[in-house]
Amino acid sequence: MAKLLDGKIKQRTFIAAPPDKVYDTITSAQEWDKFFTTEMELEPHAGGKCIFSWKDWGPDKYTLTVPGKVVEAKKPNLFVFMWGAEGSATTIRIELKAHSNGTIVTLTEDGYMDTPGGRAMMLECASGWGEAMTLLKFYIERGVVYTQPD
Predict the structure, then answer these.
(1) Which residue of 62, 65, 114, 145 sits 20 to 30 Å from the alpha carbon of 87, by its own alpha carbon?
(2) Residue 13: pLDDT above 80?
(3) What DSSP string runs through 63-123?
(4) Cβ-Cβ contacts under 8 Å for 61 (sequence gap 6 or more)
(5) Which pTM value belongs to this model?
């Protein structure tokens, strides 16, 4: 059996909003659907479901559903979930820390297998989480809702 990669994905950003507002956004399926997903399902409590879905997403119009479950939800500072197929799920940890006039958001993901497929998925998700963090910032600070291309 392949071992896990030592590395992890790490994305950080500053959002000019209090941690409560950021937390409420990242623990709501309806809010995720405004900036990063389509038809997401989320029960924001430990043991709850967390199903990310994209339908005809982005310029490549890809469709994907990734099942998962919430591991930990501690308002206003921590939201942790696992996603992916059983046996190859990864863990996403989103930490929120009040700073100045807003929140520093730190997202980490680990648990990727040290295989060609695991390394490829880690690279894809690293860029995806970078996009998600940017879209989250623009959504909360400016009200920018993601618009699907025609």
Answers:
(1) 62
(2) yes
(3) EEEE-EEEEEEETTTEEEEEESSTTS-EEEEEEEEEETTEEEEEEEEE--BSSHHHHHHHH
(4) none
(5) 0.95
CB 94 within 8 A of CB 85: no
Is residue 107 within 8 Å of 94, Cβ to Cβ? yes
Q: Report residue 32 as tokens.
A: 């995720």
CATH pick for 9-141 out of 3.30.530.20, 3.40.50.700, 3.30.420.10, 3.50.50.60: 3.30.530.20
CA distance 106 to 27: 15
What's the rounded Cα separation, in Å, for the pair 90 and 80? 11
C-alpha closest to that of 52 among 9, 88, 96, 82: 82
Cβ-based neighbour number of residue 1 at 10 Å: 5
Q: Where are the domains of the chain?
A: 9-141
Are the beta carbons of 125 and 10 closer than 8 angstroms?
A: no
